[in-house]
């Protein structure tokens, strides 16, 4: 009986992540296709529309927006809807959280060596964190709370979309060779993931 239960749990551990990932991808693709398909059908007529064209159009649109965002005038234009959402109660919290999460996962706005190990004072305990702000940055609200030799470090929590932001002296941190997205994946999984260690440089 014990072998049957262990085999069941092992099978669930293999199959469930696959099913959940595929379902999320399917939902995302069907949502994009279902939202844009009526518009393309109206523009191209049904005779010229084929399934999948809405998804391809969405990817092309994202590429175009990302490419044009390099220029200040277009960057201001694309950021305008977000600025409007940030002024709407309720929507501002949702949009702000999603925007911060996307930036965090992509490593956007992070400097080199932004992943650190924080050593707790008077303790041998160490935590993996991501530097979000440094002291001494002009006109920055978070930075204004810190001294020049302090860092704001986000400490993610395992198996939970959350964490803590702490302010620590630079002397309590040491940099590690890891990208923010890799650090998040490692910590959120409680270190149980199968990410390989980086190859040593010669």
From TrEMBL:
TM ranges: 12-29, 49-69
Pfam families per the UniProt record, alphabetical: DUF502
Keywords from the named record: Membrane, Transmembrane, Transmembrane helix
Superkingdom, natural source: Bacteria
Keyword Membrane: yes
PANTHER family xrefs: COV-LIKE PROTEIN 1, PROTEIN LIKE COV 2
The protein's name in its UniProt record: DUF502 domain-containing protein
């Amino acid at each position: 009986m014990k072998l049957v239960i262990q085999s069941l749990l092992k099978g669930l551990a293999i199959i469930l992540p696959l099913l959940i990932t595929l379902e999320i991808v399917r939902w995302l693709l069907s949502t994009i296709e279902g939202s844009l398909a009526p518009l393309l059908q109206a523009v191209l007529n049904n005779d010229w529309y084929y399934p999948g064209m809405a998804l391809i159009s969405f990817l092309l649109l994202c590429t175009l927006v990302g490419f044009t965002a390099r220029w200040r005038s277009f960057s201001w234009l694309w950021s305008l809807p977000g600025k409007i959402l940030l002024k709407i109660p309720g929507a501002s919290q949702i949009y702000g959280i999603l925007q911060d999460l996307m930036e965090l996962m992509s490593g956007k706005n992070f400097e080199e060596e932004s992943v650190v190990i924080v050593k707790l004072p008077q303790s041998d305990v160490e935590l993996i964190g991501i530097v979000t702000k440094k002291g001494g940055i002009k006109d920055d609200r978070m930075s204004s709370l810190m001294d020049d030799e302090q860092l704001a470090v986000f400490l993610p929590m395992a198996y939970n979309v959350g964490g803590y932001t702490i302010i620590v002296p630079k002397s309590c941190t040491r940099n590690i060779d890891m990208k923010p997205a890799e650090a998040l994946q490692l910590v959120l999984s409680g270190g149980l993931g199968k990410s390989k260690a980086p190859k040593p440089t010669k």
